[in-house]
Please model this.
Amino acid sequence: MQLSSRPFAVGAVALVAVGVLSGCSAGGTTDSTPTATATRTVTATPSAPSSAPSLPAPSTSAGSSASGGDAGSGATGGRCATSDMTGSIEPGSGGAAGSVVVHLVLTNTGATSCTLQGWPGVSFVGGGDGAQIGAAATQDQASAHPTVTLAPGQAAVAPLKIGQAGNYSSADCGPRTPDGFRVYPPGSKQSLFVRDTSYQACADSSATLLSVEALVPSGQATS
Model:
């Protein structure tokens, strides 16, 4: 009987496979050790934001500088600077019953011509420290308000109506004797002090005593 050679061949192949596996595990040139993989967590660092664009500084309107100065100061034909003016009170038309009208006079003491236009701000002050007493003057908007050009030494006048404190009860007025007037030339944030103790003021701001017209050239006031 002839034996089949197939089992022999299968056995030989099996032996060869075992030998190869043995060689791998016994220090052969093939390294089956898995390569370690390092894991690193990276935290993203945000880039620094670019600087914001610089904005232009706000412009300063005329007459409203931080120092409170007057625009046009020292410029020929510009608005009269408060520092180049003096104020005074002169007789006016005399007024009517219960009030008197005087002239508030603003004189250019500077070295150049300048202009004034509009209504001055006026209030009583007292207490030796310039504290305002009562309400500021109302403005007679019906009065003429031309632009007045003042050469050095020239003056403009504003008729100022002063009511009598006696028109009000003592309780409604709170009568006080002022040291004088605080005067703001038109458009200015600086004031003048005009000393005059001839009148009574009312501390209660609801008792309005003062009313002022616009400035006009000296000699042209109608009241």
